Amino acid sequence: xxxxxxxxxxxxxxxxxxxxxxxxxxxxxxxxxxxxxxxxxxxxxxxxxxxxxxxxxxxxxxxxxxxxxxxxxxxxxxxxxxxxxxxxxxxxxxxxxxxxxxxxxxxxxxxxxxxxxxxxxxxxxxxxxxxxxxxxxxxxxxxxxxxxxxxxxxxxxxxxxxxxxxxxxxxxxxxxxxxxxxxxxxxxxxxxxxxxxxxxxxxxxxxxxxxxxxxxxxxxxxxxxxxxxxxxxxxxxxxxxxxxxxxxxxxxxxxxxxxxxxxxxxxxxxxxxxxxxxxxxxxxxxxxxxxxxxxxxxxxxxxxxxxxxxxxxxxxxxxxxxxxxxxxxxxxxxxxxxxx
Length: 340
Fold this sequence. Notes:
Elements: E1 11-13, H1 16-27, E2 29-33, E3 45-51, E4 55-61, E5 66-70, E6 90-98, E7 101-105, E8 108-112, E9 116-120, E10 126-130, E11 135-142, H2 143-154, E12 167-169, H3 173-191, H4 198-215, H5 221-229, H6 234-245, H7 253-260, H8 264-275, H9 279-296, H10 303-309, H11 315-326, H12 330-339
Antiparallel strand pairs: 1-3, 2-5, 3-4, 4-11, 5-10, 6-9, 6-11, 7-8, 7-10, 9-12
Helix pairs in contact: 3-4, 3-11, 6-7, 9-10
């Protein structure tokens, strides 16, 4: 199925030259054919995309096999911000929906398919090869947004550019969750664009940045682990103890502030410094994990009952949030435990 990120596609063309010019002018990407063109593998280009303040999510299909050359200037914002002296550098994440990809990163090749995604860092020029009929979901993250998020987690600005490991597992762990939330973004945008709501868009972008910085290996991974190993301030420890002791109760931020003994702004900052998320996001993540643990056990019988027990009263919103975090619906988790 083709996910649509805009009801009006940014580009739909069967012309190689039209596509080449479009990518060069709008993205600063050089495109050339990597295989035969003709009746067997005709050009059939579809590019539907969604712009957020610091991220870009797109569905892409080219038809023919192509070679795409990306420099540090290559960016979905290249034409939109042509007045800037230095166009924003971006990190690219590609998850294949069909067909294969191969990236040349720093002189080494990295293969991508439906099980393995590709992460490209703007620390060097990169080349991406796509097979005939390849279709994928792609994500672009502005370097400046990623650096701001990393600085908040480290407590200081990074001194070097972040460089990610180029391969990401799309079948499990954070890779599966990241691929899942891109699918969710595509589906939501097609249904009416809840990502147009600023608070939802901000949460989406924060999730993506957390997933990349906390779990995808990069040159600051060890520094982040050292931050996590520091002894948390007393206010954070008090809030954590209270959360774990009252996980199934209807807690509010005001409750956590009262227990911590510090102003709300201080608690929020300390929580983000030591856990990378706000206290309420930490609480919801913990509750989601409890639901998942229960659904994966042999005792669970109903998704709704498990969700309600851990404070999720709205089934629709719970299902969306569960899928975005774990890459599958709660009913799939429950069904797998029943099979076992």
